[in-house]
Amino acid sequence: MTATTSPYESDALTEASVDVAVIGGGAAGLGGALILARSRRSVVVVDSGSPRNAPAESMHGFIVLDGTSPAEILHRGREQVRQYGGRIVHGEVVSARPADPSADGDLRFTITLADGRIITTRRILVATGLTDVLPELPGLAEHWGHSVLHCPYCHGWEVRDEPIGILATGPVSIVHTFLFRQLTEDLTYFTNGTDLDEDNRARFAARAIRVIDTPVAAMVNDDDGALAGVRLTDGQVVPRRVIAVLAQLRARTHGLEGLNLPLQEPPNLGHGFASGPAGITEVPGIWVSGNATDLTAQVGPAAAAGALAGADINRMLAIADTDAALQGSR
Questions:
Q1: Is there a smaller number of Cβ atoms within 10 Å at the N or the C end of the chain?
Q2: Whole-structure pTM over 0.85, yes or no?
């Protein structure tokens, strides 16, 4: 996809070098860019236009903006960054790597986009988000973000009192089940080849949660294409209107290999970039925020993390500017 077919208005790259390049234009990236732009930093956000929550009709759990569509939140965020001089550029990063330091010894990085455009930057904020990797079951992916859900806080209220099925992906699905039991009395747990010990079977029975050990074969739709149930390998169909599943969460790392950012792998979740307070990494000059490092963050925490990272980047740039001025005065 080129800039002429961007899903949003894309700004031109007009400067040879910027203070900060933000890779990823979701809540975390825009949150960081807003703080930086308001601090009078030259900042460019590179965004592919493919947010993780694009399939969802609305976003929930973020005070004031609860119920707003993801597309509207991103539109507002882009315009707010722009009003302080930040730029939003549609593009895909294919390479990012350290470059030769400046004359005063400050850090430099080079970012190359798929269409050949190049950005030189002093600092980088990685806010690429993640990809949800679903179990490979026929019919599951087509309902993702609607009848197939993952987060009881993001979408739970909207499916309250529906017949819900939990498609187990590992031990973490057990707690997931207790959270969804708060939302409905009609809950079925499909072990789908995962272990469920007797203690947890007793706990499920105490909460009237049905357990099915027969493996799942596919999702079943009604005549209108809506999710109607789950077909088991023995041919039985269990009626369900909603399926909750914890997908494997994998940070979007494509094009960033040259930065040598370490990854972390929380048990049973997936992998994300490792980071410390305010998103700082062990690679000088690079910060990460949002779902790229915090795999379970909702929109609100992701935006807040981006803002914290942006403030820390500005702090470090202010120190570098002062060091350069002192060196020049000598």
A1: C
A2: yes
